[in-house]
Amino acid sequence: MLAFRLTVSAACRRQLEQKLNIAQQMGKIEQVKPVLAILSLVEGATVQATAMIVKVSEEAVRQWLHLFLVKEVQGLTTNNPPGRRPQLTKAQKQELAQIIDDGPETAGFPVACWRWPMIHHLI
Q1: Cα dist. 95→53, 119, 121 in Å?
Q2: Integer Cα distance of 61 and 54 in angstroms
Q3: What's the whole-model pTM score?
């Protein structure tokens, strides 16, 4: 593996630290980890050590490094989470949670214990 030292300008470092603070305040771990990884590499840590610190694979660290080198700080932004979009909106999920909390008898089922087919029927 090619060994090199990653150095960034003071302005870029401030951008990274600002992005880290915002992501931490919002509780977005998927945005915290890449920024922490890049800051760790800037401090001189190896890819292997960074992967252990951030608790991700070495390949993930390499991918984040590649994105950072190509697109700078903007490359670490995740736009859309992977996977299918949820079928229910937040309001529908809250309504379903309330129905489940009220119990199946209140929802018109003749039993006192929820089963998956009944919940599936509600959805």
Answers
A1: 40, 12, 14
A2: 9
A3: 0.60
74 residue type, one letter? Q
Tell me the two tokens of residue 72.
Answer: 């700078």
Match 């470092």 to its residue by tokens: 13
- Cα 52 from Cα 55, distance rounded (Å): 5
Phi, psi of 66 (to 5 degrees): -60, -45
Q: With contact defined as beta carbons under 8 Å apart, do 52 and 60 qualify?
A: no
Nearest residue to 66 (alpha-carbon basis) of 47, 93, 49, 79: 47
The label of the residue with tokens 């302005």 reads: 11
pLDDT in tens, the chain (123 residues): 566 788 888 888 898 888 888 888 888 888 888 999 999 998 888 899 999 999 999 999 999 888 888 888 777 776 666 788 888 888 999 998 998 999 888 888 888 888 888 888 888
